[in-house]
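Tutorial handout. Part one gives the primary structure; part two gives the three-dimensional structure as tokens.
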Amino acid sequence: MNNRIALTFGLAVSISSATATFAGPCSQQIGEMQAQIDTKLEAAAAAGPSGKETTAATMNRQPTPKSIAAAEVRLGDISAKTMQAIDGGMARAREADQAGDRIACEKALADVKNALGN
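Part two.
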């Protein structure tokens, strides 16, 4: 029984350390930027007009950052061009991060920051 516990513990440690090694060079900055985007979208949603409740909203579904962004574009609280710049920049940042390209990742995040107006 002790061997089974030790094996399970060792496997858990191995898996957790392996996932940490897959983090790219700017994974933390991507997470921080995503938090800034979410905050900006939530602020726009709170400050702007309310939209018509959708069918999905009545089905016990939680809004996602993407659905909030789409609603804010429809309501005119944020432009479609700005959302495209943000989405495109974040996609480029994630791709660069996965490729281990810190410079391209940081450039993409700078583009997102610029699109956010920060």
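Part three, for discussion. The chain has one domain: 25-116. The radius of gyration is 19 Å.
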